[in-house]
Task: structure prediction
Amino acid sequence: MKDPATRLIEQIRLDFEATADTTGLQSLAPEVEAALTRVPRHHFVPARQQSQAWDNTALPIGHQQTISQPFVVALMTQLLNLSPKARVLEVGTGCGYQTAILAELAREVFTIEVIPELAESARERLRTLGYDNVHTRVGDGHAGWPEEAPFDAIIVTAGAPRIPASLEEQLRPNGRMVIPVNSDWQSQDLVVATRNESGELDCQRVLAVRFVPLVGKKS
Ligand code: SAH
Result:
């Protein structure tokens, strides 16, 4: 019998192939695959969902929030084009799974979560797993993390009506932002925004996705 991680990677590979037309990504990158294999997803999933921990699906984590589908985590990560030197901002820590994947690939990860209980348990979990290049904060991610800006990459893991202005300002020239932007009342388009030489954002819509809403300030 195949181990759960191998089975999950196979499913993610198929999802990459099925979406290549719109994402522009032909296949799962080896370094993202390695990160998905290394991060123990069962540590991020509540006891009740343990039997599904390595399934290619989103799962509930309490507080009406979810752990994202592994394919979507892989896709968003790969779209960020991270270098090992990258400093990354994440908005929406949740259980910290995406955070850990980023921490495997980048130099430093700054992550913000608005629900204090989730932020605290993610912080503890990431510390226990040895991710000492992760910095956590409780608060409204609309404001970003100005003291640590600019960032090489910004990832937002909740759906927003538009790209928050502060996050745009905190992206380094040639930096990349991946964010689900609302297309109707309950789904979003995953958008890749690249900051060009003149400081403007070039936006590309890559896939229809469904995330929980980004709450708090509308900007
Ligand atoms: N990244 C997670 C998925 C997070 S779900 C994973 O790896 O599975 C989205 C998270 O965004 C939720 O925990 C939610 O509480 C948080 N969130 C929503 N609005 C936010 C805001 N304005 N600032 C920070 N976090 C926010």
Observations:
- The domain at 4-209 is CATH 3.40.50.150 (Rossmann fold).
- The longest helix spans residues 4-23.
- The chain has one domain: 4-209.
- Helices lie at 4-23, 30-38, 70-79, 97-105, 116-128, 165-169.
